[in-house]
TrEMBL record:
Mg(2+) 2 binds at residues 48, 76. ATP binds at residues 122-123, 145, 212. Reaction mechanism of ThiL seems to utilize a direct, inline transfer of the gamma-phosphate of ATP to TMP rather than a phosphorylated enzyme intermediate. The lineage of its organism: Bacteria, Pseudomonadati, Pseudomonadota, Gammaproteobacteria, Cellvibrionales. Mg(2+) 5 binds at residue 213. The gene is thiL. InterPro entries: PurM-like_C_dom, PurM-like_C_sf, PurM-like_N, PurM-like_N_sf, ThiL-like. Mg(2+) 1 binds at residues 48, 123. Its EC number is 2.7.4.16. SUPFAM superfamilies: PurM C-terminal domain-like, PurM N-terminal domain-like. Residues 149-293 form the PurM-like C-terminal domain. It comes from Microbulbifer variabilis. This is Thiamine-monophosphate kinase.
Length: 315
């Protein structure tokens, strides 16, 4: 293998060796992959693009970029309570660099093995560094955004704010010690898709999504899709210790407005709350849904609270 493999060598040497997983009748190498859909339930599919300079620094560790690209896609499957099956990869590279590609492919296929999802195809082009992954999963019991109702309780699956607090460190704008640096890289590049929580709440929750744009923005999406509003009490919210360490006075703003944590936000009807409590999950109840179109209203120790940041939008 040379140091600047051509397009077909890239596919052959780095990606075509991906292990063939469950339901793959024909994998990488033909015009299409052939996939066997499970006999019942539904397929769930989603796609996310990561662009260098916008979603990650261009000189970041290729294995970490790959992990993040796949994990954020897997998080969408988790948010729908779908089991991951397959994914495709559209890779745009500024140049052909065998060392970079080896690290990227190893990180990608290691993450794929960890979550039981197999690479079944893709596209390889030259251009500014960008990674698009499409995932396909299967669900018998999907969690949607549009089934919440007034009176439902609102939950978050874990602490928020770590990834947003980590961003300036990851971008090299804030210097920290080696231990904190590592925590930041983990928070930003290795978000944990919340499959176990999703599976546990699938029969109880009225709505769910993963928090990619910020709690207030994403809860706003549930409200809009379901035609309800929300009152949330921020003193109940679990704020990440990393956010508290890195940005003490801004920690609440990051936990409510910063994205990229990929925890779940979900709602449970009042009459199922006792069943949820029985599961003993480490989730936090942060408020309730109400009728009307006031959107998401925040309270802090009984006082109205206004967000400083309202979630990320590209345009
Ligand atoms: P075509 O010209 O028919 O579109 P390509 O030459 O683009 O096919 O790709 C050849 C095969 O390699 C296809 O099976 C395609 O899905 C796969 N492939 C191309 N790029 C990638 C990639 N980055 N990762 C995984 N599979 C890829
Ligand atoms: Mg073709």
């Amino acid at each position: 293998m040379g140091t600047a493999p051509g397009e077909f060598e890239i596919i052959r040497d780095f990606f075509a060796s991906a292990p063939v997983g469950e339901g793959v009748a024909l994998g990488i190498g033909d015009d299409c992959a052939l996939l066997q859909a499970p006999a019942s339930g539904q397929l769930a599919t989603s796609m996310d693009t990561l662009v260098a300079g916008r979603h990650f620094p261009a000189d970041a560790d290729p294995a970490a970029i790959a992990a993040r690209a796949l994990r954020v896609n897997l998080s969408d499957l988790a948010a729908m309570n779908a089991r991951p099956l397959w994914f495709t990869l559209a890779l745009t590279l500024p140049d052909s660099d065998a060392v970079w590609l080896r690290k990227f492919a190893d990180g990608l296929l290691q993450t794929a093995a960890q979550f039981g999802v197999s690479l079944v195809g893709g596209d390889t082009t030259a251009g500014p560094l960008s990674i698009t992954i499409q995932v396909i999963g299967h669900t018998e019991s999907p969690l949607r955004r549009d089934r919440a109702g007034p009176g439902d309780h609102v939950y978050v699956s874990g602490p928020l704010g770590a990834a947003a607090a980590a961003l300036p460190v990851v971008l090299g704008e804030q210097r920290v010690n080696a231990d904190v640096q590592l925590q930041c890289e983990r928070a930003f590049y290795y978000p944990e898709p919340q499959f176990p929580v999703a599976a546990a709440i699938a029969e109880l929750a009225s709505a769910a999504l993963d928090i990619s744009d910020g709690l207030l923005a994403d809860l706003g999406h549930i409200c809009e899709s379901s035609g309800v509003s929300a009152d949330i009490h921020l003193e109940r919210l679990a704020v990440s210790p990393l956010a508290q360490t890195l940005a003490a006075e801004k920690a609440m703003a990051l936990a409510t407005g910063g994205g990229d944590d990929y925890q779940l936000c979900f709602t449970v009807p009042q009459q199922r709350v006792a069943d949820l409590d029985q599961l003993g999950l480490k989730v936090t109840a942060i408020g309730t849904l109400i009728e009307g179109s006031t959107g998401v209203r925040c309270w802090h120790n009984g006082n109205p609270w206004s967000p400083a940041v309202t979630g990320y939008q590209h345009f």
